Amino acid sequence: MWGMIATWRMAVEGLTEGANTLEKGGSAEEAIVKAISEVEDFPYYKSVGYGGLPNEEMEVELDAAYMNGTTLDFGAVGAVKDFKNPIKIARRLSVEKANNFLVGVGAEKFAHKEGFERKTMLTDRAKIHYKNRVHKLNQQENELTPYSGHDTVGMVALDQQGLMTAGTSTSGLFMKKPGRVGDSPVIGSGLYVDSEIGGATATGLGEDLMKGMVSYEIVSFMREGFSPQEACEKAVAKLDQKLKERRGKAGDLSVVAMDKKGNYGVASNIEGFSFAVVTETKAPKVYIVDKIKEGKCHYEKATQEWLENYMATRTAPLEEEWKK
Ligand code: GLY
């Protein structure tokens, strides 16, 4: 059996590429790096890689992580600027004996020394988003606050040899403080994988996801015998409830998981979370998830109309409201 699951609709093209690798007997490591790089390279996804939205100083700072579920190798970068594929740097760091998680200038020095490709990651489109946002906030005499979409791409892959891997990549919150790092590169929070059990990855408000170590929690539930679907539902319901009880509210929490047999699960505390999945017996498809209700999460295949509307919205021309 082989398979791959990922957060959000934006992952499906990469996931399809990854599936080609897995189908031919390629490794889960190669598949996940290829799949996430594809998402990082697509300029219209405004929360990952090239075209990702900038921080409050109009600089794109990227977080990414990679984990091998057999060796437990883990590598990550935080707040890294102007490198084409942060996921590749994270994978490279995962095989270092120490210094596996580097941030900011240190991560950039490492990437430069290792010959990773540099690229200006701020696009003209992202600049328009930024200037429109500042303009709007100035008009409302408001403070800069983070944009409410945090669409990290997170993936879990299983290959025919039984190796499982997980990876994440994100530009984090729009208008974040320089140096802010979310859950995505944090082992146990943004991702966790153990080839003897399964893997999980998360997207949503990093500050809240980290409070529950949600990916590790899901893998722990699977270890106890819960299915990936039950494990995802339990982890999201538990963290959502705890945050509401202790803090009055919970940020967006969405997760996907796959076990070592290719069974998968998903849960979310918001409406409209989407995910993509492919297995040996199922072609790559996108699904839309309903908000968790009484501990259960339902999902349905995305309609053609939804899929077309998604791409049309992402690529539509942007008005320069700040010039008006
Ligand atoms: N979950 C992505 C972030 O908070 O940065």
From TrEMBL:
Site note Cleavage, residues: 151-152
Matching CDD domains: Glycosylasparaginase
Binding sites annotated in the UniProt record for substrate: 180-183, 203-206
GO terms, molecular function: hydrolase activity, acting on carbon-nitrogen (but not peptide) bonds, in linear amides
Catalytic site: 152
Pfam families: Asparaginase_2
Top-level taxonomic group: Bacteria
GO cellular component: cytoplasm
SUPFAM superfamilies linked to this entry: N-terminal nucleophile aminohydrolases (Ntn hydrolases)
InterPro entries noted in UniProt: Ntn_hydrolases_N (IPR029055), Peptidase_T2 (IPR000246)
Protein name: N(4)-(Beta-N-acetylglucosaminyl)-L-asparaginase
